[in-house]
Write a structure and sequence with these properties.
The protein is mainly β. It has 3 helices and 40 strands. This is Pectate lyase-like protein.
């Protein structure tokens, strides 16, 4: 009985061993276990065309699948990070196989990876690509493209770093370090892009997603003619992306002959203007006289506390709002951000600099430039201007929620104070007006009961009250100037008055009282 048992154990062991073989990896020379399979990853029957010699292999007439823990390394496909061997084709094959087999965790191991042409990272949705290497590119155009030309994708990029070979001899026109092509809901971590015509190109040509709802994390974006460039072709668009950090710089190594028309961030697209993109604390630094920090286009984009430091242009390191920009914001007083840095050719943009805040009204006359409201029923303080004393400042101007205005200094009015009565037409406004000359011939328009002060020193009357009519007439002269009172018409204080004179004086006083009451001067 014991011999039978041992025979069965040996039979089962041999059967198992026939299902798993150990092979030598073609490139890494490691011993790798492969499991015998009859079906492909998608359930279809295996055949020779489905072998890739890395994940699926054929041996002695049987098909085998590589055993791994979920992470797939490009070194299995022949990647050599010696900084000399051209790995463009190796990487394109690696990413093509990963897409076909829907592999989700891809690793580019440490080292310097030389490429001479475009590498396309077009993989399956939800794939994580971990770049532990550093690319050296000699590509004449786009070096690395992440995404697809035919569909929007979610691809997560970690630690991508690339430099243009020998860029300090001159920036190659048309060269691009990294291109993001219609990604959505993705995380893109850029460690470095350096020495290209465009360091990072956001290129959207697809609708129904475009480049949107992504999170970009930047580290070093140096010595590119344009650091980050937005580009769209109908129906593509670039909306609702968050960009965090980033050191943007043209260093002393940047070729002087490549300096003109440089931008660290250029959002001008020409079609389908970008909107609702947010940049958090970018650091724009420079050694170039012609460099510009940022060109903002589109609507409702926001830049939070940018840093501007250009040793060649201390006070004038531009952020431009182009003519098609509107409702964009710069929030927070970033280092070096003065009003001199802002060129605003757009509409209704808002920006805060170390010199103060500028707010433009919306394109609607009913919408105020700024609205302040207190929601605490016991707190009516709504607006305060304090004196320049930093230790014990006092109120200089105060406006409360009840409409009261208190000013410590002079209250200067150029035209007049108006009291709105019953309509938006100024004919219905009762107020105190000022001007030069007779109000009835001087285009003064006010409601009945309005008071007019003539500022001309030699006028015959200084105070007028509107007693009747509308439009530009109906003002009566009430108080003459001293020059108007001449001795032959003035009545001596010691003279006696007859009954008609007394009645006339009483009538005039009553008219004056009524006018002052109507105007609200007295009750």
């Amino acid at each position: 009985m014991k011999r039978v048992y041992l025979f069965l154990v040996l039979l089962i062991t041999c059967a198992f061993n026939a299902q798993v073989v150990t092979l030598i990896d073609t490139y890494t020379k490691e011993l790798v276990n492969y499991e015998r399979v009859s079906n492909y990853y998608d359930g279809s029957l295996m055949n020779d065309s489905k072998t890739d010699h890395v994940i699926y292999r054929k041996k002695d007439g049987y098909y085998y699948k590589r055993q791994f823990d979920g992470n797939v390394s490009a070194s299995w496909f022949g990647l050599k990070n010696d900084g000399v061997s051209d790995m463009s084709d190796v990487l394109n094959n690696f990413f093509a196989v990963a897409k076909k087999l829907k592999l989700k965790n891809l690793i580019i191991p440490e080292g310097k990876t030389y490429i001479s042409k475009t590498v396309r990272v077009d993989v399956d949705n939800g794939t994580n690509v971990y770049f532990k290497n550093h690319f050296i590119s000699n590509s004449l155009n786009e070096s690395i493209i992440v995404g697809s030309d035919v569909e929007n994708k979610e691809i997560h990029i970690n630690g991508l770093s690339i430099i243009k070979k020998d860029y300090y001899g001159g920036i190659l026109s048309g060269s691009v370090g990294i291109t993001i092509k219609d990604l959505i809901n993705s995380t893109i971590n850029i460690k470095m892009t350096m020495g290209f015509d465009i360091g990072l190109l956001l290129n959207s040509t697809l609708g129904n997603g475009g480049i949107s709802y992504n999170q970009f994390n930047f580290m070093t974006i140096w010595d590119n003619r344009i650091g980050v460039k937005f580009a769209t072709t109908v129906p593509g668009y670039i909306n609702e992306n968050n960009f965090y950090g980033g050191s943007f710089n043209h260093s002393s190594a940047y070729p002087v002959n490549s300096a003109p028309n440089t931008y660290h961030v250029d959002m001008q697209t020409g079609t389908y203007l970008p909107n609702n993109n947010r940049f958090f604390s970018p650091s724009f630094e420079d050694n170039s006289l012609t460099a510009k920090a940022m060109r903002i286009d589109g609507n409702f984009n926001v830049v939070y506390t940018p840093r501007l430091e250009n040793v060649k242009k201390v006070l004038d390191y531009p952020i431009e709002f182009v003519s098609t920009s509107a409702y964009n914001n710069i929030i927070g007083r970033g280092y070096g951000l003065t009003h001199q840095c802002i060129t605003d050719l757009g509409n209704y943009n808002i920006y805060e600099t170390i010199d103060g805040l500028r707010v433009q009204t919306a394109n609607n006359h009913d919408v105020p430039v700024m609205t302040l409201q207190t929601v605490d029923g016991t707190n009516n303080n709504i607006f305060r201007v304090l004196s320049k004393d930093k230790v014990n400042p006092t109120d200089v101007l105060n406006i409360d929620a009840l409409g009261s205005i208190r000013s410590k200094g002079e209250f200067i009015v150029n035209e007049g104070i108006y009291f709105k009565a019953y309509s938006d037409n100024r004919d219905g406004w009762r107020g105190i007006y000022m001007g030069n000359g007779n109000p009835n011939t001087n285009n003064v328009k006010g409601g009945t009961g309005s008071i007019y002060l003539d500022l001309v020193s030699n006028s015959k009357s200084t105070l007028w009250i509107k007693k009747e009519g509308g439009g530009f007439s109906g003002f009566w002269s009430m108080i003459p100037t001293q020059a108007e009172i001449v001795p032959d018409t003035a009545v001596s204080a010691t003279s006696s008055y007859n009954a008609d004179q007394v009645n006339s004086i009483i009538t005039e006083l009553r008219q004056l009282k009524t006018s002052l009451q109507n105007s609200g001067v007295i009750k």
